[in-house]
Automatic annotation (TrEMBL):
<dbReference type="Pfam" id="PF00196">
    <property type="entry name" value="GerE"/>
</dbReference>
<keyword id="KW-0238">DNA-binding</keyword>
<dbReference type="GO" id="GO:0003677">
    <property type="term" value="F:DNA binding"/>
</dbReference>
<dbReference type="Pfam" id="PF00072">
    <property type="entry name" value="Response_reg"/>
</dbReference>
<keyword id="KW-0597">Phosphoprotein</keyword>
<dbReference type="InterPro" id="IPR000792">
    <property type="entry name" value="Tscrpt_reg_LuxR_C"/>
</dbReference>
<protein>
    <submittedName>
        <fullName>Two component transcriptional regulator, LuxR family</fullName>
    </submittedName>
</protein>
<feature type="domain" description="Response regulatory">
    <location>
        <begin position="7"/>
        <end position="123"/>
    </location>
</feature>
<dbReference type="InterPro" id="IPR016032">
    <property type="entry name" value="Sig_transdc_resp-reg_C-effctor"/>
</dbReference>
<dbReference type="InterPro" id="IPR011006">
    <property type="entry name" value="CheY-like_superfamily"/>
</dbReference>
<dbReference type="GO" id="GO:0000160">
    <property type="term" value="P:phosphorelay signal transduction system"/>
</dbReference>
<keyword id="KW-0805">Transcription regulation</keyword>
<keyword id="KW-0804">Transcription</keyword>
<dbReference type="InterPro" id="IPR001789">
    <property type="entry name" value="Sig_transdc_resp-reg_receiver"/>
</dbReference>
<feature type="modified residue" description="4-aspartylphosphate">
    <location>
        <position position="58"/>
    </location>
</feature>
<dbReference type="InterPro" id="IPR039420">
    <property type="entry name" value="WalR-like"/>
</dbReference>
<dbReference type="GO" id="GO:0006355">
    <property type="term" value="P:regulation of DNA-templated transcription"/>
</dbReference>
Amino acid sequence: MTDKPLRVLIADDDDLMRAGLRAVLSSDDTIEVVGEAADGREAVALARVVSPDVVLMDVRMPQLDGIAATRQLGAAVPTVRVLILTTFEDDDYVFGALSAGASGFLLKRTRPEKLIEGIHTVAAGDSLLSPSITRTVIDQMSAAAPPDPAAVRRLHGLTARERDVLVLVARGLSNGEIAAELFVEESTIKTHMKRILAKLDLRDRVQAVIVAYETGLVRPGDPARSRQPAPRGQP
């Protein structure tokens, strides 16, 4: 018995890029390309009809750019995941697109197998940020205004252990690495992560990272570990 292929919509204003992406994705039987759009407005309209699992979204497009399209998709098709494809590592739109609800970022020069892996990653509800893109996000955060007290209050509902987990997520650690850091099972970290997202009303890990930096819980240059892990067995 095989699972149904993931339904993917390609949104890019470059005809050649769309053709190349379709060729790559069509060669993999775990993915079905259900449509193509040449601009953001067309992508949103088409997504309403074909209900894709993932939209591969270019950033710079006519009519409606990828950031605005991503924001509209979140309202129009809440279940869809957006994976941004960009040409430049220092794209000025990185933070805006993630804030709009994108689940990940990949460079267009990414190898085909990594692109396919990335589609499955975001479709499963995880986030995807390459190291270079993560650095761009952190640089954006470091240039941002001081934390807003109202934003900081969002963290008050988290337990000490949940705050530890959020810190480590923001520093780029995987669930397995966080589990090793805090001396717990990986399944426990997954549970904490679900609670964090629910309490903060967030969609995925990308948004959690943004909140951690926006509130000052984590700052650029902090070591990749929590303040002080709670004793083993403590929630």
